[in-house]
Amino acid sequence: MKRELWRNFDFWLFGASIFLSIFGIMMIQSAIAGNEVLALSVSRQPIFLGLGVVLMLIITAIDYHYWGSLARFMYIFAVVSLVIIYIVGQARFGSARWLDTGVILIQPSEIVKIIMIMVLANYFAKNQDKPHDFRWIAQSFLLTLGVVIWILIQPNLSTSIVIMVIWFSLLWICGIPLKYLAILALVGLVLIAAAFPLLQDYQRARVITFLFPDPEARHGDTYNVEQALISIGSGGWFGQGYGQGTQVQLRYLKVRHTDFIFSAMAEEFGFVGTMLIMGLLLFIIWRCIQAGRHASDLYGSLIAYSYAAMLFFQAAVNIGVNLNVVPVSGLPLPFMSYGGSSLLSSILGIGLVESVNLRKGNIA
C-alpha cells in the first residue's frame, strides 16, 4: 500500500479502542482476583487483544471494497459456521454457541456480526437507487433472517437482536419510507408478543423478573441487579480504588467480569471514572460516525455508520442492565467485558472503519 495512504489512519480511534481494551483487561483481572478457575479462563483475553490488533491492521490495509465483492461468499461462510455450531458446538451456560478449537473457544456469532455489517452494507449500497418499497425491505430482511434464525436456535437472543439492530439501522440510514417504518413497528410489536411464549424459560424469566421483581429474592437476576446497583452506589464520586471494591472483591457482585463489569468499574473508579470511560466509548462511536460522513462512497459510509450503531446499542443495553432500566440481556460492554470473541469482533470492526478512513479525505 502507498505510504501516503496511511496518513488518513485515525490514530485517535485506534488509540481509544486499544486503551479501552487494556483497561477492560485490568478490570477483568480485578473482578476475578482470588478465583483461580476464572483466572485460568480469562488469561487468554490479552491473547485475543494481540491477535485482534494484528488482524485489525491487516483489515485496515485491505481495501474495504474487496469485502463487497466477496459478500456472497462471506454470507455463505457465516451460515455454514453457524450450522456447524448447531451440530457440534460446545454447550456452556445452557447454550451451544462455542466452537472448541483445542486451544481457545470461539463464538462464531460474534464474528458473524461483523460479517453481516459488510454483507448488509453491500446490499443496501448496491440497491440504493432502486425503489425503497416492500420488496427492497423484504429482500434485506430475508438476508438477515437467514443468519439470525441459526443464532436464535443456539439459543442466543441478544446477538440476534444486535444483528436485527444493524439491519434496521441501515434501513433507517438509507431512507426507509415512513409508512413502511410504521408497518415494521406494528409488525415488530406483534411478533414480540407472539414470540414471548416461545422463548427459553430463562429468557422469559428475565423479562418477568424485570417487570415484576421479587423484593425477597436471594439469587437469580433480581439479586444480581440489586448487587449491581449497590456496587454502583458504593463507588461514590471517585470510587474505592482499583482492586478495593468490597462488592467486587467479596464476590457479592456476580458475573462481575462479563454482564456487570460496568458496576465493578463504578465501584472501584466512582462516578467520575465511569463517566470518563463512557465518554471515551462515545468518542469511539463519534469517530466512526465521522468516518462514515467523510467516506468516499455509500458502501464505506454504511460500514462505519452500522458499526457505530452496533457499538452504541450494545453499550446502551449493557449499561442499562447494570442500572436496572432494561432486562438482563447478556450483551457484553464493547472492548471491556470478558469474552475473547466479543473483543475480537470489536477490534475487527475498528479495522473496517480504519479501512474506510484510509480511502477518503482527512477527517475533521
Describe this structure in words.
It is built from 15 helices and three strands. It is mainly alpha-helical and 364 residues long. It has one domain (3-358). It has a three-stranded antiparallel beta sheet with strand order 1-2-3, with helices on one face. β2 (95-100) and β3 (105-106) form a beta hairpin. The protein is globular, with a radius of gyration of 20 Å. The model has no long low-confidence stretch (mean pLDDT 86).
Notable traits:
364 residues; three-stranded antiparallel β-sheet; globular; 68% helix; mainly alpha
Task: Put the structure in a nutshell.
The chain is mainly alpha-helical and 364 residues long.
Unreliable sequence segments: none
The side-by-side strand order for the widest beta sheet comes to 1-2-3
**In the residues, how many domains can be counted?**
1
**Discrete helix count:** 15
What best-fitting shape do the alpha-carbon axes yield? globular
Mean pLDDT, all residues: 86
Helix and strand composition category: mainly alpha
- What proportion strand? under 5%
| Gyration radius over CA | 20 Å
Number of strands: 3
Distance between the termini: 23 Å
